[in-house]
Amino acid sequence: MTPEIANHIRGMEVAGKMAAETLKYAEPYIKAGITTNEIDKIVHDYILSRGAIPAPLNYHGFPKSVCTSVNEIICHGVPDSTVLKDGDIMNLDVTVIYNGFHGDTSRTYFVGDVSDKARDITDCAEKAMLKGIDEVRTGATTGDIGFAINKFVTRRGYYVVHEIGGHGIGTTFHQDPFVPSYGKKGKGDKLKKWTCITVEPMINETDKPILEYDIPGSSIKWYTTGDKTLTAQFEHTVLITDEGAQILTIC
Ligand code: MF3
Ligand code: CO
Ligand code: CO
Protein backbone atom coordinates (compact mmCIF):
# COMPACT_ATOMS: atom_id res chain seq x y z
CA MET A 1 0.00 0.00 0.00
CA THR A 2 1.33 3.44 -0.92
CA PRO A 3 1.44 6.27 1.64
CA GLU A 4 -1.20 8.08 -0.48
CA ILE A 5 -3.60 5.16 -0.16
CA ALA A 6 -2.93 4.81 3.56
CA ASN A 7 -3.63 8.53 3.97
CA HIS A 8 -6.88 8.22 2.01
CA ILE A 9 -8.05 5.25 4.08
CA ARG A 10 -7.23 7.02 7.35
CA GLY A 11 -9.04 10.16 6.16
CA MET A 12 -12.15 8.18 5.21
CA GLU A 13 -12.10 6.28 8.52
CA VAL A 14 -12.03 9.50 10.51
CA ALA A 15 -14.76 11.18 8.43
CA GLY A 16 -16.93 8.05 8.53
CA LYS A 17 -16.69 7.81 12.31
CA MET A 18 -17.57 11.48 12.64
CA ALA A 19 -20.66 11.05 10.45
CA ALA A 20 -21.76 8.11 12.63
CA GLU A 21 -21.16 10.12 15.79
CA THR A 22 -23.26 12.93 14.33
CA LEU A 23 -26.22 10.60 13.74
CA LYS A 24 -25.85 9.24 17.27
CA TYR A 25 -25.76 12.77 18.65
CA ALA A 26 -28.96 13.71 16.80
CA GLU A 27 -30.91 10.58 17.67
CA PRO A 28 -32.33 11.67 21.07
CA TYR A 29 -33.75 14.84 19.49
CA ILE A 30 -35.92 12.89 17.04
CA LYS A 31 -39.13 13.14 19.08
CA ALA A 32 -42.72 14.25 18.51
CA GLY A 33 -42.97 18.06 18.57
CA ILE A 34 -39.60 18.94 17.04
CA THR A 35 -39.42 20.48 13.56
CA THR A 36 -37.10 19.18 10.89
CA ASN A 37 -35.60 22.70 10.77
CA GLU A 38 -34.66 22.34 14.43
CA ILE A 39 -33.00 18.99 13.72
CA ASP A 40 -31.09 20.63 10.86
CA LYS A 41 -29.80 23.34 13.20
CA ILE A 42 -28.79 20.81 15.89
CA VAL A 43 -26.86 18.73 13.37
CA HIS A 44 -25.34 21.77 11.65
CA ASP A 45 -24.02 23.17 14.93
CA TYR A 46 -22.68 19.79 16.06
CA ILE A 47 -20.79 19.23 12.80
CA LEU A 48 -19.19 22.70 13.00
CA SER A 49 -18.27 22.07 16.66
CA ARG A 50 -16.31 19.03 15.49
CA GLY A 51 -14.35 21.15 13.00
CA ALA A 52 -16.16 19.57 10.06
CA ILE A 53 -18.44 20.85 7.28
CA PRO A 54 -22.00 19.63 6.54
CA ALA A 55 -21.60 18.42 2.93
CA PRO A 56 -25.23 18.99 1.80
CA LEU A 57 -25.20 22.73 2.59
CA ASN A 58 -24.94 24.58 -0.76
CA TYR A 59 -24.22 21.28 -2.56
CA HIS A 60 -25.65 21.98 -6.04
CA GLY A 61 -27.67 24.66 -4.28
CA PHE A 62 -29.14 22.42 -1.55
CA PRO A 63 -30.27 24.86 1.16
CA LYS A 64 -29.81 22.83 4.36
CA SER A 65 -27.17 20.81 6.24
CA VAL A 66 -28.98 17.45 6.41
CA CYS A 67 -31.77 15.59 4.66
CA THR A 68 -34.89 14.78 6.72
CA SER A 69 -37.18 12.42 4.83
CA VAL A 70 -40.47 11.80 6.65
CA ASN A 71 -42.91 8.93 5.91
CA GLU A 72 -43.57 8.98 2.13
CA ILE A 73 -40.44 11.04 1.35
CA ILE A 74 -37.91 8.69 -0.23
CA CYS A 75 -34.82 10.91 0.09
CA HIS A 76 -33.42 14.47 -0.01
CA GLY A 77 -36.23 15.77 2.19
CA VAL A 78 -35.47 19.44 2.89
CA PRO A 79 -35.73 20.45 6.56
CA ASP A 80 -38.58 22.92 7.08
CA SER A 81 -41.30 23.79 9.59
CA THR A 82 -42.73 20.24 9.51
CA VAL A 83 -43.42 19.09 13.08
CA LEU A 84 -42.66 15.42 13.78
CA LYS A 85 -45.62 13.57 15.27
CA ASP A 86 -46.11 10.27 17.03
CA GLY A 87 -46.16 7.44 14.48
CA ASP A 88 -43.91 9.11 11.89
CA ILE A 89 -40.76 7.52 10.55
CA MET A 90 -37.92 9.76 9.45
CA ASN A 91 -34.69 9.09 7.63
CA LEU A 92 -31.93 11.40 8.81
CA ASP A 93 -29.09 11.54 6.29
CA VAL A 94 -25.83 13.10 7.48
CA THR A 95 -22.74 13.75 5.39
CA VAL A 96 -19.68 15.43 6.91
CA ILE A 97 -16.52 16.68 5.24
CA TYR A 98 -13.53 16.42 7.55
CA ASN A 99 -10.00 17.19 6.39
CA GLY A 100 -11.36 16.98 2.82
CA PHE A 101 -12.86 13.49 3.20
CA HIS A 102 -16.59 12.62 3.13
CA GLY A 103 -18.50 10.36 5.51
CA ASP A 104 -22.12 9.67 4.45
CA THR A 105 -24.64 7.73 6.56
CA SER A 106 -28.35 7.60 7.25
CA ARG A 107 -30.86 5.70 9.35
CA THR A 108 -34.64 5.63 9.54
CA TYR A 109 -35.89 6.54 13.02
CA PHE A 110 -39.22 5.98 14.73
CA VAL A 111 -41.06 8.94 16.25
CA GLY A 112 -42.77 7.49 19.31
CA ASP A 113 -44.96 4.47 18.63
CA VAL A 114 -45.15 3.50 14.96
CA SER A 115 -47.32 1.04 13.04
CA ASP A 116 -46.33 -2.58 12.45
CA LYS A 117 -45.96 -1.72 8.75
CA ALA A 118 -43.57 1.12 9.55
CA ARG A 119 -41.51 -1.18 11.78
CA ASP A 120 -41.41 -3.89 9.16
CA ILE A 121 -40.38 -1.73 6.21
CA THR A 122 -37.70 -0.05 8.33
CA ASP A 123 -36.37 -3.45 9.42
CA CYS A 124 -36.39 -4.56 5.78
CA ALA A 125 -34.41 -1.48 4.68
CA GLU A 126 -31.70 -1.99 7.32
CA LYS A 127 -31.32 -5.69 6.54
CA ALA A 128 -31.33 -4.98 2.79
CA MET A 129 -28.43 -2.56 3.28
CA LEU A 130 -26.53 -5.23 5.23
CA LYS A 131 -27.23 -7.82 2.50
CA GLY A 132 -25.73 -5.41 -0.02
CA ILE A 133 -22.70 -4.73 2.16
CA ASP A 134 -22.16 -8.50 2.48
CA GLU A 135 -21.42 -8.61 -1.27
CA VAL A 136 -18.70 -5.96 -1.13
CA ARG A 137 -15.12 -7.11 -1.74
CA THR A 138 -12.39 -6.32 -4.28
CA GLY A 139 -13.49 -7.50 -7.72
CA ALA A 140 -17.18 -7.98 -6.90
CA THR A 141 -19.56 -5.87 -8.98
CA THR A 142 -22.23 -3.29 -8.33
CA GLY A 143 -24.65 -5.81 -9.88
CA ASP A 144 -23.77 -8.31 -7.14
CA ILE A 145 -24.77 -5.71 -4.53
CA GLY A 146 -27.98 -4.76 -6.32
CA PHE A 147 -28.98 -8.35 -6.93
CA ALA A 148 -28.60 -9.27 -3.25
CA ILE A 149 -30.57 -6.21 -2.11
CA ASN A 150 -33.40 -6.70 -4.58
CA LYS A 151 -33.73 -10.43 -3.88
CA PHE A 152 -34.04 -9.82 -0.15
CA VAL A 153 -36.51 -6.94 -0.54
CA THR A 154 -38.71 -8.78 -3.04
CA ARG A 155 -38.97 -11.79 -0.73
CA ARG A 156 -40.16 -9.47 2.01
CA GLY A 157 -42.89 -8.13 -0.27
CA TYR A 158 -41.43 -4.66 -0.81
CA TYR A 159 -39.96 -2.77 -3.79
CA VAL A 160 -36.53 -1.19 -4.30
CA VAL A 161 -36.15 2.28 -5.76
CA HIS A 162 -34.30 2.09 -9.11
CA GLU A 163 -33.74 5.75 -9.89
CA ILE A 164 -31.51 6.63 -6.91
CA GLY A 165 -28.83 4.60 -5.14
CA GLY A 166 -25.35 4.45 -3.68
CA HIS A 167 -22.22 6.03 -5.09
CA GLY A 168 -18.47 6.21 -4.95
CA ILE A 169 -17.29 8.65 -2.28
CA GLY A 170 -13.99 10.13 -1.13
CA THR A 171 -12.66 13.64 -1.52
CA THR A 172 -15.85 14.34 -3.47
CA PHE A 173 -19.43 13.61 -2.32
CA HIS A 174 -20.75 11.64 -5.30
CA GLN A 175 -18.50 9.81 -7.73
CA ASP A 176 -18.57 6.66 -9.85
CA PRO A 177 -19.66 3.93 -9.57
CA PHE A 178 -23.47 4.15 -9.21
CA VAL A 179 -24.51 1.46 -6.73
CA PRO A 180 -28.01 0.28 -7.65
CA SER A 181 -30.45 -1.56 -5.39
CA TYR A 182 -31.21 -4.02 -8.23
CA GLY A 183 -29.06 -5.78 -10.80
CA LYS A 184 -27.57 -8.97 -12.13
CA LYS A 185 -24.77 -10.96 -10.53
CA GLY A 186 -21.44 -10.22 -12.22
CA LYS A 187 -22.76 -7.16 -14.10
CA GLY A 188 -22.00 -3.50 -13.53
CA ASP A 189 -18.75 -1.91 -12.38
CA LYS A 190 -16.05 -3.92 -10.61
CA LEU A 191 -15.30 -2.72 -7.08
CA LYS A 192 -11.75 -1.42 -6.72
CA LYS A 193 -9.55 -2.22 -3.73
CA TRP A 194 -9.17 0.60 -1.17
CA THR A 195 -11.85 2.79 -2.74
CA CYS A 196 -15.07 3.67 -0.92
CA ILE A 197 -18.73 3.43 -1.86
CA THR A 198 -22.03 3.93 -0.10
CA VAL A 199 -24.69 1.24 0.10
CA GLU A 200 -28.04 2.98 0.62
CA PRO A 201 -31.11 1.11 -0.58
CA MET A 202 -34.48 2.88 -0.55
CA ILE A 203 -37.40 0.51 -0.01
CA ASN A 204 -41.02 1.28 -0.91
CA GLU A 205 -44.28 -0.28 0.19
CA THR A 206 -45.67 -0.32 -3.37
CA ASP A 207 -44.35 -0.29 -6.95
CA LYS A 208 -46.21 2.89 -7.93
CA PRO A 209 -43.77 5.10 -9.94
CA ILE A 210 -42.04 7.59 -7.68
CA LEU A 211 -42.63 11.35 -7.86
CA GLU A 212 -39.89 13.97 -8.26
CA TYR A 213 -39.97 17.54 -6.93
CA ASP A 214 -37.75 20.59 -7.46
CA ILE A 215 -35.95 22.51 -4.75
CA PRO A 216 -35.90 26.26 -5.53
CA GLY A 217 -32.39 27.39 -6.49
CA SER A 218 -31.02 23.83 -6.54
CA SER A 219 -30.49 21.09 -9.11
CA ILE A 220 -31.07 18.47 -6.38
CA LYS A 221 -34.53 16.86 -6.46
CA TRP A 222 -36.52 15.31 -3.65
CA TYR A 223 -38.75 12.30 -4.11
CA THR A 224 -41.89 10.72 -2.69
CA THR A 225 -43.60 7.41 -3.27
CA GLY A 226 -46.19 7.54 -6.05
CA ASP A 227 -49.11 6.89 -3.74
CA LYS A 228 -47.70 8.46 -0.54
CA THR A 229 -47.26 5.06 1.12
CA LEU A 230 -44.22 4.45 3.30
CA THR A 231 -40.56 4.25 2.29
CA ALA A 232 -37.44 3.58 4.37
CA GLN A 233 -33.68 3.78 3.89
CA PHE A 234 -30.37 3.08 5.62
CA GLU A 235 -26.90 4.05 4.44
CA HIS A 236 -23.30 3.25 5.29
CA THR A 237 -20.05 4.35 3.73
CA VAL A 238 -17.77 1.31 3.29
CA LEU A 239 -14.14 0.68 2.33
CA ILE A 240 -13.54 -2.07 -0.23
CA THR A 241 -10.94 -4.64 0.81
CA ASP A 242 -9.94 -8.10 -0.44
CA GLU A 243 -11.65 -9.61 2.60
CA GLY A 244 -14.91 -7.66 2.29
CA ALA A 245 -16.41 -4.34 3.27
CA GLN A 246 -15.04 -2.34 6.17
CA ILE A 247 -17.96 -0.23 7.43
CA LEU A 248 -16.61 3.26 8.07
CA THR A 249 -19.74 4.96 9.41
CA ILE A 250 -19.79 3.28 12.79
CA CYS A 251 -18.79 4.53 16.23
N1 MF3 B 1 -26.58 12.17 1.52
C1 MF3 B 1 -27.26 11.95 0.27
C2 MF3 B 1 -26.71 10.66 -0.28
O1 MF3 B 1 -26.74 9.70 0.41
C3 MF3 B 1 -27.10 13.05 -0.71
C4 MF3 B 1 -27.72 14.31 -0.30
S1 MF3 B 1 -27.38 15.47 -1.49
C5 MF3 B 1 -28.23 16.78 -0.91
O2 MF3 B 1 -26.14 10.56 -1.32
F1 MF3 B 1 -27.87 17.78 -1.64
F2 MF3 B 1 -29.51 16.53 -0.99
F3 MF3 B 1 -27.91 16.97 0.33
CO1 CO C 1 -24.95 8.69 -0.15
CO1 CO D 1 -26.46 10.10 2.46
Structure write-up:
The protein has one domain: Creatinase/methionine aminopeptidase superfamily (Creatine Amidinohydrolase, Alpha-Beta Complex), CATH 3.90.230.10. A hairpin with a 5-residue loop joins strand 7 (166-169) and strand 8. The protein has helices at residues 3-26, 36-49, 116-134, 142-155, and strands at residues 53-54, 67-70, 73-75, 89-98, 101-110, 159-160, 166-169, 175-179, 196-199, 202-204, 211-215, 218-224, 231-233, 236-240, 245-247. The protein has 251 residues and is α+β, with helices and mostly antiparallel strands. One cobalt (II) ion is lined by residues 104, 167, 198, 200, 235.
How would you briefly describe this protein structure?
With 251 residues, the chain is α+β, with helices and mostly antiparallel strands. 28% of the residues lie in helices and 28% in strands.
Helices and strands in order:
Blueprint lengths: L2 H24 L9 H14 L3 E2 L12 E4 L2 E3 L13 E10 L2 E10 L5 H19 L7 H14 L3 E2 L5 E4 L5 E5 L16 E4 L2 E3 L6 E5 L2 E7 L6 E3 L2 E5 L4 E3 L4
Antiparallel strand pairs: 1-4, 2-4, 3-12, 4-5, 6-10, 7-8, 7-9, 9-14, 10-13, 11-12, 14-15
Helix pairs in contact: 1-2, 3-4
The structure holds 2-amino-4-trifluoromethylsulfanyl-butyric acid (MF3) and cobalt (II) ion (2 copies).
List keywords for this structure.
single chain, 251 residues, alpha+beta, Creatine Amidinohydrolase, 4-stranded antiparallel β-sheet, 15 strands, globular, binds 2-amino-4-trifluoromethylsulfanyl-butyric acid, binds cobalt (II) ion
